[in-house]
Amino acid sequence: xxxxxxxxxxxxxxxxxxxxxxxxxxxxxxxxxxxxxxxxxxxxxxxxxxxxxxxxxxxxxxxxxxxxxxxxxxxxxxxxxxxxxxxxxxxxxxxxxxxxxxxxxxxxxxxxxxxxxxxxxxxxxxxxxxxxxxxxxxxxxxxxxxxxxxxxxxxxxxxxxxxxxxxxxxxxxxxxxxxxxxxxxxxxxxxxxxxxxxxxxxxxxxxxxxxxxxxxxxxxxxxxxxxxxxxxxxxxxxxxxxxxxxxxxxxxxxxxxxxxxxxxxxxxxxxxxxxxxxxxxxxxxxxxxxxxxxxxxxxxxxxxxxxxxxxxxxxxxxxxxxxxxxxxxxxxxxxxxxxxxxxxxxxxxxxxxxxxxxxxxxxxxxxxxxxxxxxxxxxxxxxxxxxxxxxxxxxxxxxxxxxxxxxxxxxxxxxxxxxxxxxxxxxxxxxxxxxxxxxxxxxxxxxxxxxxxxxxxxxxxxxxxxxxxxxxxxxxxxxxxxxxxxxx
Length: 488
Ligand code: MN
Ligand code: MN
What we know:
Blueprint: H1 11-19, H2 26-29, H3 32-51, H4 55-68, E1 72-73, E2 92-97, E3 101-106, E4 117-122, E5 127-138, E6 141-149, E7 162-169, E8 175-180, H5 200-204, H6 207-210, E9 218-221, H7 233-246, E10 257-262, E11 267-269, E12 275-278, H8 281-298, E13 308-313, H9 330-342, H10 348-356, E14 359-362, E15 366-367, E16 389-392, E17 396-397, H11 408-420, E18 425-427, E19 437-438, H12 442-446, E20 451-456, E21 458-459, E22 467-470, H13 471-487
Parallel strand pairs: 1-2, 4-13, 4-14, 14-20, 15-21, 16-18
Antiparallel strand pairs: 2-3, 3-13, 5-6, 5-10, 6-9, 7-8, 7-10, 11-12, 12-22, 16-20, 17-19
Helix pairs in contact: 3-13, 8-13, 9-10
């Protein structure tokens, strides 16, 4: 049988192959085995995402995995300073930062003062928090007064089922975990909206105004407590239900952390099941990919060349402030602990050298090109579904203000590693110049002297109750993070 003759390429075609950056669709380029693995990875991710709908829940689920894989709490070996137990290559440690952030590492063969490789993602997502005195009664309804968390379009959070997740420390000092609305038989909550018939005035308002922040109060009950002598009986009835189930009294709300999140589960999206629709992809898809990239390092026979570190932080959506956010010294402290336990003797200079010599991928999502909203994107630098890992050289808004920019040397280093490992990557800048912008944790870690590049999964409908990602991009991102930890 005659062999099919290959088409002869013209000189121009060959030149184009040599010079032009050809961003291909990963569904086309991936091997059948990789596609199968990507589908399995997506299945497990959905389960994890349904378990980890708040920063605390995500950290708890990640901790459980780490402990199973032999990670130990670094605080248990800090007591004896540099004299106590030493961490040898291959050792695994974590630090649980108030249950809301998590740092962990696999010790490498090279000393930490020569620099470590870091993956940094955030595990908080936009949502609706309860105020400190939230429960009130009005015209036979009981409602929760709220204050939204992070950058949301208020109107998107009305008329959807919401679940209440909370942590309450009672007067007895005991912690009570509340979760209402996730089980099939649970009741849910909702923010109501006006019927169109009465919304003529509302519909004239700007989208940023027609549901005001104070109008995001949540419908919580309507049935009075059965004692007509009592006051505010609907509210009283709810307090009684909470007391009976969780032992909570009204005063406990003052310091509690209550978060309302969409009650729906992560689902396959599209007839071809190529995508996942869920609450909280930003930034738990990158956090999940980073977590598993580190766990892969653990299962290798050899310890990594450099220490592999992963930080999963809280409070990114409100500026990374506070003692669980990326601006906190706690993450720097963890690197100091690594130096203390691997270098002898420990010195402040060793820590500073470690930070200056370190490399980080700021693992955060990117706004994917959306065909419904063409006008806000620069198509040449936008990220697209199916095209793989997104590299964002810089963040910030008009004039690159307030962002972080990776230098040319570091960008090339990361690109080369990805190319070597055949990890498909694409550009991703946040919309047109002067059209908006944003930031990540990159700038805060870069301030410590670390080389940082933003790098993650493209997302549609970011910060909405139902964000969308592509399964293949999630998998390629996870592979890219692994390549970085091995070779940076
Ligand atoms: Mn993010
Ligand atoms: Mn975000």
